[in-house]
């Protein structure tokens, strides 16, 4: 008697089942955005101590009005020019003596900021300002800091800060991580992010 | 002679679809791996702004989400067209943020509480007034680590 082979299972509807599952997952899931601008809010200070006096020249005021217009240091400015203006202010290094800045490459204008440690960017916004515009401005200001930090890291260690941080997070990176952490901190201290969001 | 009498029908041969399920399963697995299930149903419009200096939020379990935006059309009759706050699955008032933060903190292990981050998912059309109020409320609760969630892109599109 001839050996009877097992009948083949019809797999024609397998594709339909898989499509059904696929469509279910497509509908119920979203690719979540998990990127953003990290900021730290200032704690509420109840103490009655006098705030330290900050020289006007060390403050870079950025204001946004209800019509989403940008006022930088009392002058109307376009968003695209903001990054350059912020870099110029932070990197000015106009101070002398102990206030001086050895690594700044700015114009050393005595009427602008003393050094990056003292330079403060103050961002004010109106209640009617659009959130999207506010984020654009925040982004440009953070970009100014990142640009200066990257430049400094490039000078000192031949790598951008982003690369160094990526190395630090990378498990397979070969090298001294404590040393790297110190280097990252050093660059961050030389250009500290002093961005005040006034209420 | 039957041997040489090949059938010459005009029909096209059927395409073999045996590998189709494999392809579809591959797609399915890609989507299962690359996406996460929505844990809250959005009742507001939430079109995030763009930024290019973004950092990645790691440790997803240590993030609290606050959504702000205009109510979706289905809810506009009830809640109006002004921007509202959404916490978890429902609309909330400013005063409810305090309880929200407290409950989120209570659900985490104590040593992890300082690492909790608040992700503000704000619609790009929202007004800063409400966002400032939320920020002030967060300061009161001492939840100081915040993240303005943005999409990666050019700021000129905002």
TrEMBL record, chain A:
Source taxon at top rank: Bacteria
A GO MF label: transmembrane transporter activity
Biological process terms in GO annotation: protein transport
GO CC terms of this entry: plasma membrane
Broad class of where this protein is predominantly found: membrane
Topology relative to the membrane: Single-pass membrane protein; Single-pass type II membrane protein
Record flagged with keyword Transmembrane helix: yes
Keyword Transmembrane helix (UniProt): yes
Keywords: Cell membrane, Membrane, Protein transport, Transmembrane, Transmembrane helix, Transport
Pfam families in the cross-refs: ExbD
Compartments, as annotated in UniProt: Cell membrane
Membership in a protein family: Belongs to the ExbD/TolR family.
Name the record gives this protein: Biopolymer transporter ExbD
Source organism: Gelidibacter salicanalis
Automatic annotation (TrEMBL), chain B:
GO terms of molecular function: transmembrane transporter activity
Keywords: Cell membrane, Membrane, Protein transport, Transmembrane, Transmembrane helix, Transport
Compartment annotation: Cell membrane
Segments traversing the membrane: 12-34
Membrane topology field: Single-pass membrane protein; Single-pass type II membrane protein
GO terms for cellular component: plasma membrane
Gene Ontology BP annotations: protein transport
Family: Belongs to the ExbD/TolR family.
Name of the protein described by the UniProt record: Biopolymer transporter ExbD
Organism (species): Gelidibacter salicanalis
């Amino acid at each position: 008697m001839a050996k009877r082979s097992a009948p083949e299972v019809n797999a024609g509807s397998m594709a339909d089942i898989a499509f059904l599952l696929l469509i279910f997952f497509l509908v119920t899931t979203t690719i979540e955005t998990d990127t953003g601008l990290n900021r730290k809010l200032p704690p509420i200070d109840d103490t009655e101590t006098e705030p330290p006096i900050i020289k006007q020249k060390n403050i870079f005021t950025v204001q946004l009005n209800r019509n989403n217009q940008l006022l930088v240091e009392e002058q109307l400015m376009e968003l695209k020019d903001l990054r350059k203006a912020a870099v110029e202010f932070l990197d000015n290094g106009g101070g002398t003596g102990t206030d001086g800045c050895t690594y700044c490459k700015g114009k050393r204008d005595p009427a602008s900021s003393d050094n990056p440690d003292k330079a403060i960017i103050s961002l004010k916004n109106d209640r009617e300002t659009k959130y999207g515009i506010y984020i654009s401005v925040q982004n440009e200001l953070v970009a100014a800091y990142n640009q200066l930090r990257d430049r400094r890291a490039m000078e000192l260690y031949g790598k951008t800060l982003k690369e160094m941080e990526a190395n630090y997070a990378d498990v397979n990176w070969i090298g001294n991580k404590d040393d790297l952490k110190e280097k990252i901190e050093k660059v961050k201290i030389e250009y500290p992010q002093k961005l005040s969001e006034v209420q | 002679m039957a041997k040489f009498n090949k059938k010459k029908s005009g029909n096209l041969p059927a395409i073999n679809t045996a590998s189709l399920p494999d392809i579809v399963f591959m797609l399915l697995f890609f989507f299962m791996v690359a996406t996460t299930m929505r844990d809250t149903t959005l009742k507001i419009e939430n079109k995030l702004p763009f930024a290019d200096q973004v950092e990645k939020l790691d440790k997803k379990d240590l993030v609290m989400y606050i959504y702000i935006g205009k109510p979706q059309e289905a809810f506009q009759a009830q809640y109006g067209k002004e921007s509202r706050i959404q916490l978890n699955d429902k609309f909330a008032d400013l005063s409810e943020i305090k309880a929200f933060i407290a409950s989120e903190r209570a659900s985490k292990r104590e040593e992890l509480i300082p690492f909790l981050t608040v992700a503000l998912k704000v619609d790009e059309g929202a007004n800063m007034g409400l966002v400032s109020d939320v920020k002030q409320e967060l300061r009161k609760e001492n939840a100081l680590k915040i993240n303005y969630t943005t999409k990666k892109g050019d700021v000129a599109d905002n």
